[in-house]
Please model this.
Amino acid sequence: MRARSDLDSAVLSAPAERSATAVAVTACRSCGGPAPKPFLSLGSTPVANRLLAGLGADAGEEQQFPLEIGLCEACALVQVTYDLPREAIFDDDYPYFSSFSDSLRAHSQAHAERLIAERGLTSESLVVEVASNDGYLLRFFHEAGIPVLGIEPTAGPAAAAREKGVETRQEFFGLALAEQLVAQGLRADVIIANNVMAHVPDLNDFVAGLAALVKDDGIVSVENPNIWDLVEHNEFDTIYHEHYCYFSTLAVDALMSRHGLTLFDVERFPELHGGTLRWRMGRGAAPQTSAIERLAAEREAGLDRFAFYADFAREVRAVQDSLRELLSDLKSQGASIAAYGAAAKGATLLNSTGVDNRTLDFVADRNDHKQGKLMPGARLPIVAPDALLTQRPDYVLLLAWNMSREILAQQDDYRRAGGKFIVPVPRPQVV
Ligand code: ZN
Model:
């Protein structure tokens, strides 16, 4: 057992954000137009990915920042209306390792194989991935003998990528780095940027970098969850400070064309991260039917107009109320409840709904880099998934609902023993 003095000396792992302040956004971060018009506030919450190293109630105070999103009616970009400085968000402890998800690994492999075939990639080609993480995607090109370059700002994942043989530069991507690479004689046949554009504070600098680094006949492939799915399926928990922007195809088209890149293809993956779009751009490429139809559908649905988003806040309140009610009913019946998935979206869900360690006993997560820490705000201890079998909670709130199929399959033993999962969105449901 730990001595009391050990508990007392437990501190937050990252005091860096203590002095950081949120700044109200005064102009659209894409087109530079007027400040985005807010349509959903989730109150004030701590930084969602900032896991705490401390123990229990002794982990110290966390700084809270306002979390609100709005629409730029000029270019259709949904974005946060308060900014945090980048250093408050990313650091060397940034915990996400993509290879921990089986479905993402399969999606990535299929994407790599398709690009290799379709673009005729060879040992003379170059594939660059921005935010290449631990090399989860580039390894498939590398193993096929195609030169790759990963760009990854965080040390842990960058080192893990190099161990796989994936050449990686530990840096943030932008125009300056792109120009440096071009000066070294590097131009990319394919640039991939998956689930990163939402994290970029200076969008135009980022896209200018993509445009500078891609060959004249190369392509840029960008994936990101889609704002239409977010709104339609009440995926409000995917909103957090680290996600500055929430993209529609209309917003991507406006952003890319500003830098001379033409959107020519759109593909939808309804199961991935709650609904993901893959946008493909080239210089002077002719738009295909997929792009033309998607833009028309979004325009018709009104994704570029405030009215489309006006009722979203009410929908979100309804989900939150119903979840609080369900959990409180179960508690009053004497049920024990845990959670699964210590991801950022879980932090938003819990902290914006006001659910914490008084209701939930722990959160299980497969990622051993997260185990032993606490989720921010809600202060749930993160443990290995076998706790579901050893501690047998009656219910498990599935915070990582985007992986529900995979997690429910992995936790079959728990379910067969009578355990039940609660899926929070689009409406709280016991399965
Ligand atoms: Zn704008």
User: Anything to note?
Assistant: The domain at 312-430 is CATH 3.40.50.720 (Rossmann fold). The first strand starts at residue 23 and ends at 24. Residues 28, 30-31, 33, 72, 74-75, 77 surround zinc ion (CB under 6 Å).
